[in-house]
Specification:
By secondary structure, the protein is of the alpha+beta class. It has five helices and five strands.
């Protein structure tokens, strides 16, 4: 997996029209995506998925498929929500863990620490935007690769959660 920490990631919601296609509906009903959300809501996770969008941007008739998803991840603890250094530490941990977990050259991840693009007044001050994209010779192959990549992301986030808890315990936060 190619993993890059960037200064900005364009919202996929801007890239895809508000009237979502069947591809978006199918992607949002994915078992892997449900498992991902459940794992991040679980006891082992220090994070929460604030928002997400997943879809298949390839047009029918193209020989190559693509599947892309974008997740807005925040700390569950509100007292950590504005801590840029923790978010930066998280993104660096994830970069290392994801490179370690997957050697696929068909998976691409981008990580960005930024203020959330949300209208919710209760939104945290910062968030981690994680974008995962997979390509394949067919849309189905891209979807399978993306699903496997999301499992790696889930495992990396749970590992990073444990590491951050240890770090916070040592620093007394």
């Amino acid at each position: 997996m190619q993993v890059e920490i960037v200064g900005e990631i364009a919202s996929l919601k801007d890239r895809f029209p508000p009237g979502r296609s069947k591809a978006f509906e199918k992607a949002s009903e994915s078992q892997v995506l449900s498992d991902f959300r459940a794992a991040l809501s679980g006891r082992d996770s220090s994070f929460h998925v604030q928002d997400s969008i997943v879809g298949f941007p390839g047009r029918s008739g193209e020989f190559q498929g693509a599947c892309v998803g974008q997740f807005i991840i925040v700390f569950r603890r509100l007292d950590l929500s504005g801590n840029r250094s923790l978010y930066s530490m998280l993104s660096q941990m994830l970069q290392g863990l994801l490179k370690e977990k997957s050697s696929s050259d068909a998976l691409f991840a981008k990580l960005c620490v930024t203020a959330p693009a949300t209208e919710d007044a209760r939104a945290p001050e910062l968030c981690l935007v994680l974008q995962l994209e997979a390509i394949g010779t067919t849309p189905e192959q891209a979807e399978v690769r993306w699903s496997l990549g999301l499992v790696h992301v889930q495992e990396a986030l749970i590992s990073a959660s444990r590491l951050l808890r240890q770090h916070l315990a040592k620093t007394g936060v």
